[in-house]
């Protein structure tokens, strides 16, 4: 019997892209990676390397910086930072066939948030993450499956990913319907050793993750704190609780059911340990921060409903200031 999704592509071979690529390749799937520069060289030379709770894994992959060399895929994971997507669009064009299923493994408010569901803003794009709506015009349901990654991972060297926490992913159709392809995707990821769940309310998972990012990512840049420190330091407690309540308020206003008790949330966050958020990793490397998706887009959604998020606005502005000022010396 032919395997489900015979051609699997991954665009963006950083921490998340390498984690997915290594797990899929080690489960026997052929994976094609769209990568560039030093990462492309490392992947061609050494394959993709992952150290996780199951041990160290290394696998050969097909890698190229030219989409045409990889060709149309059945399944394409997008694993870049959110702000890199508009520029990525032309590069992934050759990977997109008429039936390619696209799965963005990307934090923050997705460009497709208002696509595929009914409601007051149905069909609109999110300007902060999709200026002019180019992404919404090219990558829309039914070509998309929503995804939320509950993962913490670093890439200490090109082509290498290291994680010490469990790997969990949630997938869902943007229109919330169950589907056969959703179940096939879930099964593929589960078979690769990543805990995978199919959801009929993907936006609930999106908000849960967004609240984790809103409470930790910008603050980690401002303070240099690890997740353990963000969620357990008495000095940060009041601020984190304020951010949490703002996130919960906005999620509820958008009709999300986020089942999250604040003490349990803080305890789970602290238990992630001394790991750096992806935003703090970017800041340490002097790279742009994902503040549009995790910050501005949240404020854009709040403004649509006339909701003020004063604490979130402050920490987003502070993180932007730190980013413009430059990396810590
Ligand atoms: N790291 C984590 O713990 C988690 C991250 N996430 C989210 O996952 C997403 C990916 O994050 P992460 O893997 O950490 O990010 P990384 O910065 O580690 O990886 C992104 C990769 O995309 C590559 N890339 C960007 N543009 C292009 C392009 N045009 N062509 C080819 N490659 C390109 C980058 O290449 P180059 O280096 O050359 O720029 C880089 O290798 C983000 O939205 C993040 O917030 C979600 C959960 C946890
Ligand atoms: C680890 C976590 C959950 C922190 O918010 C994350 O998603 C990130 O680092 O971007």
TrEMBL record:
Q: Which domain of life is it from?
A: Bacteria
Gene3D superfamilies (UniProt xref): N-(1-d-carboxylethyl)-l-norvaline Dehydrogenase, domain 2, NAD(P)-binding Rossmann-like Domain
One GO cellular-component annotation of the UniProt record comes to: cytoplasm
Ketopantoate reductase C-terminal domain: which residues?
202-320
- What is the enzyme's class at the highest EC level? oxidoreductase
Alphabetical GO biological process terms: pantothenate biosynthetic process
Catalysed transformations (reactions): (R)-pantoate + NADP(+) = 2-dehydropantoate + NADPH + H(+)
EC assignment: 1.1.1.169
Oxidoreductase: present as a keyword of the record?
yes
Does Heme count among this protein's keywords?
no
Residues in Ketopantoate reductase N-terminal domain copies:
8-175
Q: Which controlled-vocabulary keywords does the entry list?
A: Oxidoreductase, Pantothenate biosynthesis
What is the recorded name of this protein? Answer: 2-dehydropantoate 2-reductase
Q: Which organism is it from?
A: Azotobacter chroococcum NCIMB 8003
């Amino acid at each position: 019997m032919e395997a489900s999704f015979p051609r699997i592509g991954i665009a963006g071979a950083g921490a998340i892209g390498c984690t997915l690529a290594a797990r899929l390749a080690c489960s026997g799937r052929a994976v094609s990676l769209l990568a560039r520069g030093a990462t492309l060289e490392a992947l061609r030379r050494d394959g993709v390397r992952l150290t996780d709770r199951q041990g160290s894994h290394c696998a050969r992959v097909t890698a190229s910086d030219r989409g045409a060399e990889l060709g149309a895929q059945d399944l394409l994971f997008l694993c870049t930072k959110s702000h890199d997507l508009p520029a990525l669009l032309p590069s992934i064009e050759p990977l997109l066939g008429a039936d390619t299923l696209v799965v963005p493994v990307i934090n923050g408010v997705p460009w497709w948030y208002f696509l595929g569901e009914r409601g007051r803003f149905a069909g609109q794009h999110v300007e902060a993450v999709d200026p002019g709506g180019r992404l919404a015009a090219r990558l829309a349901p039914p070509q998309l499956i929503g995804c939320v990654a509950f993962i913490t991972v670093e890439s200490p060297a090109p082509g290498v990913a290291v994680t010490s926490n469990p790997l969990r992913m949630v997938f869902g159709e943007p229109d919330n319907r169950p589907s056969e392809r959703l179940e096939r995707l879930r099964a593929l990821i589960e078979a690769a050793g990543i805990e995978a769940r199919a959801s009929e309310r993907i936006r609930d998972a999106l908000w849960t993750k967004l609240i984790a990012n809103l409470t930790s990512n910008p603050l980690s840049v401002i303070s240099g704190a690890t997740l353990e420190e963000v969620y357990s330091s008495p000095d940060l407690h009041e601020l984190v609780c304020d951010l949490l309540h703002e996130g919960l308020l906005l999620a509820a206003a958008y009709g999300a059911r986020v089942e999250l008790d604040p003490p349990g949330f803080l305890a789970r966050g602290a238990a992630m340990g001394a790991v750096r958020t992806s935003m703090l990793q970017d800041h340490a490397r002097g790279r742009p921060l994902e503040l549009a998706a995790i910050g501005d887009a949240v404020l854009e959604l709040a403004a649509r409903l006339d909701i003020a998020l004063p604490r979130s606005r402050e920490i987003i502005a502070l993180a932007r200031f730190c980013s413009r000022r430059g990396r810590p010396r």
